[in-house]
Specification:
With 101 residues, the protein is an alpha+beta fold. It has a single domain, classed as 3-Layer(aba) Sandwich (Endonuclease, Chain A), CATH 3.40.960.10. The chain contains four helices and four strands. A four-stranded mixed beta sheet has the order 1-2-3-4, with helices on both faces. 18% of the residues are buried.
Length: 101
């Protein structure tokens, strides 16, 4: 079930739109995970809130998800709240770089 977008997800979505990057939102992958954004052919983008993703349980879960996706041919991009709010230029350049590969 889709969730309500967070402020940082909205910021990143607006940037993807401005850059004219085609994406889909919250597409489940093998009943294992639901990336915030999916850029074809195989790039998943997660926008992680600083509080929730700093908890040990969620850190471990994120590592397991990353490994699963990488082992199944996906590129995983994760950006935390601080990156989105304070280093958005680096985030943009990273996404553009990965799409070009």
């Amino acid at each position: 079930m889709p969730k309500k977008d967070t402020k940082i997800e909205i910021i990143l979505e607006n940037i993807l739109k401005e850059l004219k990057i085609k994406y889909k939102k919250q597409i489940p992958i093998s009943n294992k995970t639901v990336p915030d954004f999916f850029v074809n052919p195989n790039i998943t983008i997660y926008v992680d809130g600083d509080y929730w993703h700093s908890l040990d349980y969620n850190k471990d879960k994120d590592i397991r998800i990353n490994e699963y996706l990488k082992n199944n041919g996906y590129k995983v991009l994760r950006y935390n709240e601080n990156d989105i709010k304070n280093n958005i230029y680096n985030v943009i350049e990273d996404i553009k770089s990965e799409i070009k590969k």
